[in-house]
Amino acid sequence: GSIKIWRIKSGILLMQFPQAHHGPIQSLSFGMTGTQIYSGSTDGTACVHGLRSGNTLRDFTGHHGEVKCLCLVRRNDSASTSSKNSSSSGSGANGERLVTGGNDGTVKVWDIKTSTCLKTFSASQFYPTTSDEDIDKHHANTSTIHPITDIRCVSRYLPNTFVVCNGTSHIHIL
Description:
By secondary structure, the protein is mainly beta. It has helices at 83-88, 132-140, and strands at residues 3-6, 13-17, 25-30, 36-41, 45-50, 56-61, 67-74, 96-102, 107-111, 117-121, 151-158, 161-166, 171-173. Residues 77-92 and 127-148 have low confidence and may be disordered.
């Protein structure tokens, strides 16, 4: 899949990444500073691309299926966070983390600097109830509770919090 960035007013092509992914692109998000763009693809990866350099900077691999959605969240939205603390905590330049959701039923939180997956939330963690008894019932009778199997949207909600949506009537706040 390719990415093309156009100036809307004039129709001029500003930049392109002709081989950003090996499959169609499912999601895009500009970085918080506007110098990078993040993409997710059917090839199972997310990537960050430099808008100044025109190069793909890093790949985020680990989903076992399509990366359907992504968003950036700040690890600490406090104005008092120093750049020294942000860089030592495994976050991006502004304490950013990449959150991706895939059709493998997982949501992953990534260290932007190293492309390391810091946390994986699996479908089994997204039951519409948190009762251990209900989860046990699910294992005995799978028609009782339906876990998320296809993450369709992740979005920043509050500092250190994001919302996960799927094709059911439930949303999950993590």
